[in-house]
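User: Here's a chain of 251 residues. Predict its fold as tokens.
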Amino acid sequence: MKNTRLENILNQHLESFKFKDYCPNGLQVEGRYKLQHIVTGVTACQALIDKAIELDADGILVHHGFFWKNEAEVITGMKRRRIQALLKHDINLYAYHLPLDVHPELGNNAQLAKRLGLSLTRGLEAWDPRSVAMVGKLDEPVSGPEFAARIEKVLGRQPLHIAGHAGELKKVGICTGGGQSYLGLAAEQGLDAFISGEISENTVHTAREMGIDYFAAGHHATERYGVQALGEWLASEHKLQVTYVDIDNPV
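Assistant: Prediction complete.
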């Protein structure tokens, strides 16, 4: 497949043109003209690039790519080494941030919610049709410790659980990655719990004082599944060879 055709397919399927994001979505670094083998992963770190080189991949598809707002614009040091490796081996780099978070089927929120038995019903930001945070319902109410155990079983890591809700959990909000700032809004809307990847010092007090449970389950851990699902879709619908590579990250 032509590299620009793949970008068009991904842009259309993820509707990336509808998002005002913190980084460019799509083809970030151009490589060889034709692709057959794609490596997918969460972040375009050096370890993932090295693995793609080892596998003789034509392209890399990630959630966290390059060229973020407010970072240094110069290509030096770590950024130079990463981009130099891509150019030297003629590897295309594709990245999709917010479009991959919110896609209703392949997105990070949707994929994690499905694994946790959470049925998504609406966006937390009711005024925004592309709300990054979502609201869902559990099929059966569970206690906070029971839900923490479920998260641990699914993700293979123990979440940090801040208990604030007095009873069982039924209505749960979700925003994979760094979505702890949505906790107050979730509490105001009467949710019993909220799950994201990271936690800040003030998150603890917000949960306790506003009566909502919070689960910090890891930025990397909560965002592994969207890019995997997108890769599986490419393999199924467009007959590309796709290899998912998980570069361990404890955060």
